[in-house]
TrEMBL record:
It comes from Cherax quadricarinatus. It catalyses: D-glyceraldehyde 3-phosphate = dihydroxyacetone phosphate. GO terms for biological process: gluconeogenesis; glyceraldehyde-3-phosphate biosynthetic process; glycerol catabolic process; glycolytic process. This is Triosephosphate isomerase. Belongs to the triosephosphate isomerase family. It comes from the Eukaryota. InterPro entries: Aldolase_TIM (IPR013785), TIM_sf (IPR035990), Triosephosphate_isomerase (IPR000652). Pathway: Carbohydrate degradation; glycolysis; D-glyceraldehyde 3-phosphate from glycerone phosphate: step 1/1; Carbohydrate biosynthesis; gluconeogenesis.
């Protein structure tokens, strides 16, 4: 009603403070897209994911939930956030960010299509130096 076109879903604070699950975020993405909104869909890596080498598994699980909800990828921006680098004083390096963004783009290629992989906007939404 207020003219807003975009909504951010899957934000790290919603995932952690309100315990929003991948399934709930998928439902929210479906609802937002069905309502004509555009979505900034966040995928999040925790310090534990990074420490244990589970970044890919964690992000790909989140991507699977998102992909189940998205039929028009032109209305979606993916936002990667390294939660361990947000407000902690520890900053992600450009190399760490680029590595994950490339993995997300490859996931899109392998699981959705070359076109979606080539055209979907993927941004880094965390702290940097």
């Amino acid at each position: 009603d207020c003219g807003c076109e975009w909504v951010i879903l899957g934000h790290p604070e919603r995932r952690t403070i309100f315990s929003e699950t991948d399934d709930l975020i998928r439902e929210k993405v479906t609802h937002a897209l069905d309502a004509g909104m555009k979505v900034v869909a966040c995928v999040v890596e925790t310090a534990e994911d990074r420490k244990t080498g589970n970044t890919r598994e964690t992000l790909f699980t989140q991507m699977n939930a998102l992909a189940a909800a998205i039929t028009d990828w032109s209305r979606v921006v993916l936002a990667f956030e390294a939660l361990w680098a947000s407000g902690t004083g520890v900053l992600a390096t450009p190399g760490q960010v680029q590595e994950v963004l490339a993995e997300l783009r490859q996931w899109l290629k392998d699981n959705v299509s070359n076109s979606v992989a080539n055209n979907t906007r993927i941004i880094y939404a965390g702290s940097v130096s």
